[in-house]
Amino acid sequence: MTDTLEPPDEHLVSLSKDGNLAAFNSLVDRYQSLVFTLCYRLIGERTAAEDAAQEAFLSAYRALHQFKGGSFRSWLLRIAANAARDELRRRMRRIPARSLSAEDSDDSALDPPDPAADPAAAFDDRSLGPALEAALRSLPPDQREVLLLADVHGFQYEEIAAATGVAMGTVKSRLFRARERLRRALERRPELFTRSGRLHDRGER
Q: Where is the HTH luxR-type domain (predicted)?
């Protein structure tokens, strides 16, 4: 019987560091959908997300010598988040700047949100579909970024701080505000929760 197990990331990374392009292409094939999805949800525009994803893989290949072990997936997604952030900055420079409201300012540290009340559990419910995507797009980019990294891709606070280049307290603050905004946006569509049974399970406030 032929062994169909795919080689682990560590093996492909090691070969890639030795100049094996086929090995790196295998990593690209393995993670291109994940990287594109993250970039698309952060940017909200397909062509720009494709550009950011391509730049992420190019940056990862150029920086392979800096990868010292651990989770290659997490390392790659940090690079992808940076690439998406750079693309967002380029896009924002082409549109008029808007004033930040007091609610947008999130430099103060807050306690971590209660996971039990986490509205991002809706990510597991495909029936929310377009409404959830629209709610995500309504978030400020920095809040959307930490929400996706934490609640979709499972990053720890330390990883998010490293990926975004901000302090731990700011990560917690942005995540708290993002979850609250997402919860409020979804609560404006109670019929979605009624259809999925989630509203009755949690109880109306």
A: 136-196
